[in-house]
Amino acid sequence: MEVIKTDIEGVVIIEPRIFKDARGYFFESFSQREFDEKIGHIEFCQDNESMSSYGVMRGLHFQRPPYTQSKLVRCVKGAVLDVAVDIRKGSPTYGKHVAVELTEDNHRQFFIPKGFAHGFAVLSETAVFQYKCDNFYHPEADGGISILDESLGIDWRIPIDKAILSEKDTKHALLKDFDSPFTF
Question: What stretches pass through the bilayer (predicted)?
Fold first, then answer.
């Protein structure tokens, strides 16, 4: 796998080595050994999958301490715009984001460390999204910032009148009103 660094330390894009022939393709979607060597040791304990239709926007979510999560995400069907926002107090990149298009064709993965809010928007008719987490989900630790916060400068590539959000995701605070539980 090739690890592509981004403008925010620790947030990386992973491109697998794909072997194609007349039968189709093959690639390793995860190797603990290679992940440890190239990114660092993370023990993933939970895999999740969601299916969504065009215009669905999920996020920007995180888990509060002591239940923080790092995530390794990918889109196995369709296309999504995936985003990580730095919410670590004192970070030189606080409030900045990295956005990457993940598709069934590019097979890219996106690693989001602890201390970041995560979200995505579905760009295709439907999308199946998978992610590994290094801590179990704890509903009492749910946290979020507004996915529509204009101060973040995220171009979600979805017209606002086509955006589909859960009720929960419409109630998250703007970054300026948010008291982050994370420090750099």
Answer: none
Nearest-angstrom CA–CA distance, 128 and 105:
13
Domain CATH code at residue 169: 2.60.120.10
Structure tokens at 140: 């009492």
Catalytic residue among 97, 107, 131, 172: 131
Active site includes 25? no
- Label residue 10 by pLDDT band (50, 70, 90): very high
CA nearest 133: which of 181, 82, 81, 73? 73
Catalytic residue selected from 61, 97, 107, 118: 61
Q: What is the dihedral of CA 39, 65, 93, 15, to 10 degrees?
A: 30
Domain count, the chain: 1
Q: What is the pLDDT of residues 24-45, one digit of tens each?
A: 999 999 999 999 999 999 999 9
| Nearest alpha carbon to residue 126 among 51, 59, 69, 62 | 51
Instruction: Read off the pLDDT of residues 128-180 as tens digits, 9 standing for 90 and up.
Output: 999 999 999 999 999 999 999 999 999 999 999 999 999 999 999 999 999 99
